[in-house]
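REQUEST ID: PR-0412
SUBMITTED BY: lab tech R.K.
PRIORITY: routine
TASK: structure prediction, single protein chain
INPUT:
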Amino acid sequence: MNVRRPSVFAVLLTLAGMAAFVRLGVWQLHRASEKEQLLARFAAATAQPVHDFASVADGVGATAFPHLSVHGRYLAEREYVLDDQTRHGRPGVVVYAPFLPCRGESCTAGIGRVLLLGLGFVARNGVARQLPPLPPLPRGEIDVRGLYMPPPGSGLRLGGNALARQTEWPKTTTFIDLAAIDHDLGRRLYPRVLLLDPDPATPYLRSWTPAAMPPARHRAYAFQWFAFAVAALAIFLVLHRVREDDKENPDDAT
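STATUS: complete
OUTPUT:
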């Protein structure tokens, strides 16, 4: 294919665009690798030895997912329902409940910071997709186990904080905001949530995954950026291709 001599500006613009697209594609591949490592650490976390919650409650690294045991009690009749969730193609909700880690007299007095527990997923029923009655929370002091994780991503927070407008429990929300729940309860929360271990005796489905974009989506975005780089080169070549009428009228060609 014959190509007309391009201007310096056209060459620089094309090269700059291609370089930017390739850089973005490489960055997406790097992000995919990071997410694979994140998922691998998460998968290995459940097999880790169980530690006492008090030893790591405030001193956890950003990439650590400790497997913890916590002794305490639930705050009675206080549950938060994270709506618009799906598991295995079924719509439903993920239920969270505030839990008071305590020892001895602190449990009786009801003092101290509160830990938000992820109880698990419950599917909606029927055509109306109504939420089934939630099982009652255990009363008294108990031990729970789970992964100490950052709260799930919130996405778009449309409509503001709906918790303050609700007067009945459980309260429904479309995002988990620990600061909003802190204010709603009037209690100080720990900076992470505890996602409880699977339990065949509970109706909750506990198939937890990190709140992050999957590696496959990052690779799809990388492919798009690389495709844009190829498209930029193709457009450059098409715009500077010598057409047949240019060959017949060389004086008109530039």
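NOTES: The chain has a mean pLDDT of 83.
REVIEWED BY: pending
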